[in-house]
Amino acid sequence: MNMRTQVGIVGAGPAGLLLAHLLDRCGIESIALEDRGREHIENRVRAGVLEQGTVDTLDEAGVGERMRRQGLVHHGIELSFNGRRHRLNLRELTGGRAITVYGQQEVIKDLINARLDAGGQIFFEVEETSVHDLDTDAPKIRFRKNGEAHEITCDFIGGCDGSHGICRSSIPAGVLNVFERAYPFGWLGILAQSKPPSEELIYCNHPRGFALFSMRSPEITRLYIQCEPDEEIANWPDDRIWQELELRLGVDESIRLEEGTILQKGVTPMRSFVVEPMQFGRLFLAGDAAHIVPPTGAKGLNLAASDVHYAAEALTGFFKRQDNDAIPAYSDKALARVWKSERFSWSLTMLMHRFPDDGAIAARFQEAELDYLMHSEAGLRSIAENYVGLPLDFAEDRPAGARLHAMQAGAGR
Ligand code: FAD
Ligand code: DHB
Known about the structure:
By secondary structure, the chain is α/β, with parallel strands linked by helices. The protein has helices at residues 14-25, 38-42, 52-60, 65-70, 90-93, 104-117, 238-249, 300-321, 326-352, 359-374, 377-387, 400-408, and strands spanning 2-4, 7-10, 30-33, 49-50, 72-74, 76-81, 84-89, 99-101, 121-123, 127-132, 140-145, 148-153, 156-159, 177-193, 202-204, 211-217, 220-227, 261-276, 279-280, 283-285, 291-292.
């Protein structure tokens, strides 16, 4: 079967679904393809922290209603090191901005419902997806569904198929510059039926390694433990998990770790990865298809959202204002923000994890840096403004004073 659309989107993760939705709001049609089933992607536990700008984007796009009701707005986070916890008051340090804890799979459910309610087309469980004629005005996507072959002729293709998708690798050799760093550890992620130890997130730098105490609701905790990059889950029976978390949290009388049923466990390796440029001909890469961050700064999902904001802006310029400069500007605009989130994620990763074979001096450097940051107004502000997310127009030329003024007036995103 042959179809035609303005924007063909490969991948129905946060990037693909939000792109389809933002385009629809601007009167641009799209078709999204997803190789997994709807139930699978609606239940895949991944990220959980939404930056202020992501919340605003979802709200303005009309998909924020349940997030506003069920999401947990946090005005602070804690960093723990040397046996003490230090709170960063995000609200005071950023002129009133915050983060919202709301699971990625809930964002996915809201976006799928919105797409289907608006009559949008998503093909689930497609097979053998491939993209063609990327450097022509009529790029094509071919795929199979229920054994039948299909082709979609598009004006543009959104490559939103994550880090293992086919879009990035369909770009001819020699076009992309690849920047990559692997870290010598991973995160063991745990979802548990238990009350979070604190109302806010706690990031711990501990001699035994990093730990993170997050949540999904007042009854469900999301926990992470630094482990080997290729750790076997079988090495982590529930008892060992709770014991290790308690040691790394450093439980005292003000805080108590409640054990509960472990609902899910998984290991994520950690790496920084970026390709430049994020487009080739009529193919736009967005989200994990173009870059990966180590999860320490909670930036992965948020970068997917900011990429598609810039992609939708470029495509709207092309289709609605006949602005021919809009399309080539996409990659530079998106990368300017991507690199700042990559830098922040790398720096928080370096600060909070124990590196094997680094010796005692590395731990002293970390402690000194953390101690400096926690006692410096500039240091605290720098972590806070990156953590809540830099405004979407941060990279545009504007003196820092003017930006600060706009942020404090609540205007900056
Ligand atoms: P994805 O969410 O990966 O979506 C891509 C979609 O494309 C998928 O649904 C995939 O099934 C589909 N697809 C792939 N290939 C094809 C194909 N050939 N044809 C059709 N469809 C295809 N970030 C954090 O900030 N904190 C975390 O704790 C965290 N945990 C994570 C845990 C795991 C296991 C992973 C993999 C990621 C995690 N992330 C985390 C990162 C965050 O979830 C991602 O940055 C985010 O999902 C990026 O969205 P995306 O839409 O770009 O990619
Ligand atoms: C979560 C994940 C992160 O990577 C992070 O930095 C904070 C919270 C979470 O899944 O809740």
